[in-house]
Amino acid sequence: MASPEQYQPRWRIADLDFSRIDLQRVRDDEYTFYLVACASFVESGSDLYTHNLVDFFHDNEQVVAWLRGQWELEELQHGAALRAYVAHVWPEFDWQSAYDSFLGEYAAYCKVELLEPTKALEMAARCVVETGTATYYRALSRSTKEPMLRDLAARISNDEVNHYKHFYHYFRQYREREGVGRSRVLATLSRRTLEMRNEDADCAIRHVLRFRDPARAEDAAYLRQLSARMNTIVRTNLTPEMALRMIMRPLELPPKVQSWVQYPIRQLMHYVFLR
Ligand SMILES: [Fe+2]
Ligand SMILES: [Fe+2]
């Protein structure tokens, strides 16, 4: 682990050359628009959640330094880079108004009460969240033919894997300190895996749709179809083994029981991505 003053984002928006975007390959791809716009909303709302986490871990200087010095900056940068991408490819979309509308509803989800009951379990929960985002961006990178988005989504996915590694490292420290048992860790991992397709994404889609295609904003059937199509794009480009390995890791199981526990987790993932 780096010392606190060494923390900084691993890349900068200035490193990206938006003039290289191959508009022909993406401009008419409405589902990619939704995948990128929704992700830009959830990422841009990261600071709501950071405050909760920083408060929760306030007595651990190293964790706070990392959350503030790298994690939060990178999550917000993910949001800003995706927003810039939307602005270049779909300039007619009123990002700010749609985001303000999203934030009005989303802010209510990010409450301290939603944190896990212990620090070790919260770190385990964060591992699941980072697995979800790493997987999402890996799938987005694989699904698009536009080279700049491929590159951007791959960069973000790598950042999310790196976040996972930090949360996992801290998880192990807290687990040792708290002596929290495997069954509680498993319960948290399972519940958070189930929540991967949660209100955040649904909330983002609704608000993006409201400003992208207002005439259909109240059309529940269209919204379901849109969301199902986006889910299919992610699912068909998933690397499920990578996600499974990442989710299972905090259990630190001996190899002989691993396949036994893998089964229910695999079923959960199946449910999350196929429903
Ligand atoms: Fe992110
Ligand atoms: Fe992350």
Characteristic key phrases:
mainly alpha, globular, 72% helix, 275 residues, single chain, binds fe (ii) ion
Helix segment count?
11
How are helices and strands ordered from N to C? HHHHHHHHHHH
Radius of gyration: 19 Å
Small molecules bound:
fe (ii) ion
Give the % helix: over 70%
Structure write-up:
The protein is an all-alpha fold and 275 residues long. Helix content is 72%, strand content 0%. It has eleven helices and no strands. Helix 5 (119-143) packs across helix 9 (220-236), helix 5 (119-143) runs antiparallel to helix 10 and helix 10 crosses helix 11. The N and C termini lie far apart (39 Å). The relative contact order is 0.14. The model has no long low-confidence stretch (mean pLDDT 89). One fe (ii) ion binds next to helix 5 and helix 6. One fe (ii) ion binds at residues 43, 75, 78, 133, 156, 160.
